[in-house]
Every structure is written in C-alpha cells, then in structure tokens.
Protein: ATP-binding cassette domain-containing protein
Amino acid sequence: MIQVNNLCKSFTRVVKDKSDSKNKILKNKKLKTKKEEFLAVNNITFNADKGEIVGILGPNGAGKTTLLRMLGGILTPTSGDICVSGHNYALDKNAAKKEIGYLSGNTKLYNRLSPRELLTTFGNLYEMSNEEIEKSIEEVIKVMDMEKFIDNRIENLSTGQTQRASIARCLIHSPKIYIFDEPTLGLDVISSKSIIEFMKNEKKNGKTVLYSTHYMEEAETLCDKIVMIHQGEIIASGTPDSLKEETSTTNLRDVFIKLASERGELIED
Ligand SMILES: Nc1ncnc2c1ncn2[C@@H]1O[C@H](COP(=O)(O)OP(=O)(O)OP(=O)(O)O)[C@@H](O)[C@H]1O
Structure:
C-alpha cells in the first residue's frame, strides 16, 4: 500500500512585479519581474490500500501530475512523507521505487525498438535475469494483448498500441503498485476499455492502482476511492457514493463543481 502524509511541493515562478507599474507608465520601461514561491501541492494526505483503485481527480493545473511525479520518485517533495509497502522514500528510495510501476503523462518510448526490445531493456535496468525477463515478457504479452505487435517497431504502432506498450513497460518487474498519470487520455473507447479492464483485473490480483484522470464518469464506476484536488489541495476524498451523498449530488462532476464553488474558487476547466 501507499501512504502519503502532509505532502507539499513548491516551485519558484517568475511573475510581473505590479509594484513597478508606476515606473513603466512614467518612463516607458518594461515591467520588472520578480521570483515567487507557490505551492503546486499543498499538504496532501491520503492512503491507497492493497486491492484498491484510487482516482486522483481535478481540473487542469490542480497539481495531479506534480503529486504523481513525487509518488513515482521523479520529483523530490519540498516536505512531507511517502511510504510505499513499508519503505519510506526519504530513507530508502530505491526499495520504494521497485514496488512501483509508474506511467508518466507524456511517456516517450524509443521509436526504433520493438516493445519486446523495450521490455528487455527495462528488465535489465531492474537487474532481472534473462530467464526472468523472458518469462515476464510472455506474461505481459498476454495481459496487455500484445501478440500482434510485440516485434514491430514502436514508431509503427497506433496510439492505443503505444499506450499498451507504455503500460507494459511498467509491469515488467511485477510491481505491487501502479501509478498511472492519465492512462486513458486521448484513447478511443476500445483502447481505453482494455486499459480499464487491465486496472480492474489487477485490483482483483491484490494490486494497488493510483491513477489520475479528467474523466469523472470513468472514475465514478472504476474507483473504490476518490481524492479530489483543486489548486494543490484536497477538497474531498472518499468513496464515490459517500462524496455524492455528502454533497447531495448525483455524479462526481457535480460534486466537484459544488465543492469548488462553495470555496468561491474559479474553475479552470
Ligand atoms: N517544474 C515546474 N515549475 C514551475 N511550475 C510548475 C512545474 N510543474 C508544474 N508547475 C505548475 O504547478 C501547477 C500544477 O501543475 P500540474 O501539472 O501538477 O497540474 P495537473 O493537475 O497535472 O494539470 P493537467 O491536468 O493540466 O495536466 C501548475 O500551475 C503548473 O504550471
């Protein structure tokens, strides 16, 4: 399982210095800029248990990718704790990362390799033996239905096949936890259905799936638990049914709209 406690990530961004506007008008100077810290992820706490699918929902810029990149070990948190199957990231990041299969939102694969060659490369990176790699590839081919294109060059695959190859790359070392950033984004119904079915089956196998999406209807039927974030903060978390009940709404889209507008915040989507 994965436990996240008081997680924060701040970035420095460059903004226009409004206090300099008088200068600009008077002397026709370019407005000065200044550096400012802002919290992209603000004090996030939740957990995802064995056999659970947890959906991270939120509009553009909510902080979903930043959160998942920290959980995937790509970004270092500014503060807070991440614990994966008993391994604390701050104390033993490598052990924690071995438990995770992380799919980033903009995964780029090596175009000139075939999925089989890609999976072999990643198996080697995880220090698996040749025999283990071959066995795992055979499993992954079955799970992701890749027989037809396992030896084709990645540059010749369709979008859906490429996404299946990207997910296959996350499975090669048999992790216990999957962290997927928008795995069904831009896919047609057939390709997204196969990925949704994959997540459902892995849940049955006792795996933990943590994934982000904009598709609230998809999350509503798939997820055991929802973590809704807006402007870096959790605005609600719980089962889809409990969130609807607490807000007297009938779907997750309305839950989000109601909670965000109660806070008087503009919705960016
Ligand atoms: N490396 C960075 N440096 C500065 N700001 C960043 C960086 N990465 C993300 N941000 C900012 O942090 C905020 C959260 O971004 P993030 O990509 O995590 O949101 P998101 O919920 O994944 O959005 P989307 O759904 O559009 O992908 C945004 O304001 C973004 O501009």
In short: The CA atoms of residues 15 and 33 lie 5 Å apart.
